[in-house]
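A.,

Following up on our hallway conversation. Structure tokens first:
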């Protein structure tokens, strides 16, 4: 029901570029990203009417996932048929799903989030005006998954305004559109850093890999571990990098001809929007540029007929690798994916193509799932069991990533702001002694995010007290120097600490995104006080145990809980881990 306050005539603002906006109506902001350019806005959030100010509840999440799965399964078949016809091919659905599935998943989630947010605004406010930045239609098209995620997250040249405008048009909303001047930016080419230059040098020897039986690509292992793994597989070691290639311009006439090809009469509003956008947003790398990339994939110094292809991350956004992979899988190569994070306990990975399309999945723990081979946390191969309790003195806090990311089914930008607010509350309620030993571990600065990070630190994290920050200390050294590690979220860092038996506590605001089959294990973490969803209670627990962390970490209840969690989700690497990994690769049939 619309409250009296929400019935007031309103102007809906959709992004941060609204300096020139003039309106007589009440300003309503779709999300926290709209406030980026206001000084002190993150310190004074209560002064703004923000739509996406709360987390999604479980019921909403389940409805969204069910809807997206249904449309995904229908569209992947239709797209495979279309692409075969367009390129004069006869490939299987699996071939095309390996190539275009990651894009389709991201496409469906981004459109769903934008559609749902608009609906919430329209249902709860009397919207008379919508402020959209001016845009050029050519800026809307995308080349590949990386390009898509970057444009949606960084709102390059008003990309999200274009998407909102198209949603509004399909749904025939009768708003007055206020057109604002956009701040145009040109995509900058990323330079090659020293590490990549060294790896590129080693690529000279890849010629000797053309007859290799195993193709190890984006394995998630360190450089020397990748070399050692291939030696254990008894083949000449090679290092392969993501191949750079020339992008192709959009063919506007072609896209216009395709504009109605995916329409469907019996579709709900969300599906109508999705189908109307496919001709715009299907990547140029699978239409205009596909033949060139296919040729390029055949000319690389990669194995010509590998028995097994092993990767951890290459299947998501490495376009040439995906074409190569699809081609080899079509011809009979076995496709092995190794886990690379905590995603397999989360509902957000409702379509995890690495798992779904692989012949075998190497997990960090014993997930008890079909085709899962239980191994160990490959990120921890270099770590011996670290006992930090006796010598560690510091409290390290692995912080939320301060980025403009907007590519999830939920408003991940808004969640990032709420996460940082919770961090500040946890820090504020620590004792002064603990505060003085606290170091905030930040992600490395990413291109285009430094201004946002500075704003979050100033207006949220440091609004009541400053703390030391660290970006460069290796995790192994952090583990050795820590008395206790705090993790905001149950991501890779948390799994690494559990696997290394480093005393750790995590904060999650709720368990809404945890899969049902993992939820009981997370509830046990709550009971053992390894996990908290209340900031004050977490701070109180840290204050109580900090002088004697070992008594808590080694009591029988906590030990049993962490042992069970480690076994299922992040097992400690065994002795001769790389030899064992090579053995498991060889055994896949």
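Then the amino acids I'd put at each of the 589 positions:
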């Amino acid at each position: 029901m619309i409250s009296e306050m929400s019935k007031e005539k309103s102007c809906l603002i959709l992004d941060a570029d609204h300096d020139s906006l003039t309106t007589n109506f009440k300003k309503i902001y779709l999300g926290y990203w709209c406030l980026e350019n206001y000084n002190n806005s993150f310190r004074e959030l209560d002064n703004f009417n923000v739509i996406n100010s709360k987390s999604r509840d479980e019921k909403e999440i389940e409805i969204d996932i069910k809807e997206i799965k249904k449309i995904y399964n229908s569209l992947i078949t239709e797209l495979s048929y279309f692409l075969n016809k367009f390129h004069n091919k006869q490939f299987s659905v699996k071939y095309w799903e390996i190539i275009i599935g990651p894009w389709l998943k991201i496409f469906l989630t981004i459109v769903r989030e934008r559609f749902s947010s608009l609906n919430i605004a329209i249902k709860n406010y009397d919207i008379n005006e919508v402020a959209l930045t001016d845009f050029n239609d050519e800026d809307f098209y995308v080349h590949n998954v990386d390009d898509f995620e970057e444009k949606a997250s960084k709102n390059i040249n008003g990309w999200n305004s274009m998407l909102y405008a198209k949603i509004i048009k399909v749904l025939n909303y009768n708003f007055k559109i206020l057109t604002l001047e956009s701040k145009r930016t040109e995509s900058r080419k990323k330079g090659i850093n020293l590490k990549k230059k060294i790896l590129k040098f080693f690529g000279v020897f890849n010629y000797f890999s053309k007859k290799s039986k195993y193709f190890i690509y984006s394995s998630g292992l360190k450089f020397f571990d990748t070399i050692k793994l291939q030696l254990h597989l008894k083949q000449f070691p090679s290092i392969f990098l993501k191949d750079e290639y020339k992008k192709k311009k959009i063919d506007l006439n072609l896209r216009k001809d395709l504009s109605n090809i995916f329409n469907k009469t019996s579709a709900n509003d969300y599906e109508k929007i999705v189908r109307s956008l496919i001709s715009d947003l299907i990547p140029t790398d699978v239409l205009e540029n596909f033949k060139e990339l296919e040729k390029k994939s055949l000319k690389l110094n990669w194995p010509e007929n590998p028995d097994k292809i092993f990767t951890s991350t290459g299947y998501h956004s490495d376009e040439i690798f995906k074409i190569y992979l699809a081609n080899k899988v079509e011809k009979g190569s076995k496709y092995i994916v190794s886990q690379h994070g905590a995603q397999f306990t989360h509902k957000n990975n409702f379509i995890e193509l690495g798992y779904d399309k692989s012949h075998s999945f190497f997990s960090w723990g014993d997930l008890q799932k079909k085709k899962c081979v239980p191994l160990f946390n490959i990120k921890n191969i270099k770590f011996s069991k670290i006992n930090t309790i006796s010598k560690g003195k510091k409290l390290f806090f692995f912080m939320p990533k301060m980025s403009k990311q907007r590519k999830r089914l939920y408003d991940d930008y808004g969640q990032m702001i709420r996460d940082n607010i919770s961090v500040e509350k946890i820090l504020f309620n620590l004792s002064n002694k603990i505060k003085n030993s606290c170091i905030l571990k930040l992600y490395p600065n990413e291109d285009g995010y430094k201004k946002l990070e500075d704003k979050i630190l100033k207006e949220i994290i440091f609004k009541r007290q400053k703390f030391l920050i660290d970006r460069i200390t290796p995790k192994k050294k952090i583990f050795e120097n820590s008395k206790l590690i705090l993790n905001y979220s149950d991501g890779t860092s948390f799994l690494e600490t559990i696997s290394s038996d480093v005393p750790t506590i995590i904060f999650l605001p709720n368990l809404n995104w945890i899969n049902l089959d993992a939820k009981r294990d997370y509830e046990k973490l709550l009971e053992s006080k390894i996990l908290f969803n209340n900031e004050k209670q977490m701070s109180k627990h840290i204050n109580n145990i900090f002088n004697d962390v070992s008594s808590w970490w080694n009591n029988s209840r906590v030990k049993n809980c962490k042992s069970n969690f480690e076994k299922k989700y992040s097992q400690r690497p065994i002795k001769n881990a790389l030899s064992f990994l090579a053995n498991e690769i060889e055994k896949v049939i």
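Residues 294 and 323 are 6 Å apart (CA to CA). Curious whether your intuition agrees with the design.

B.
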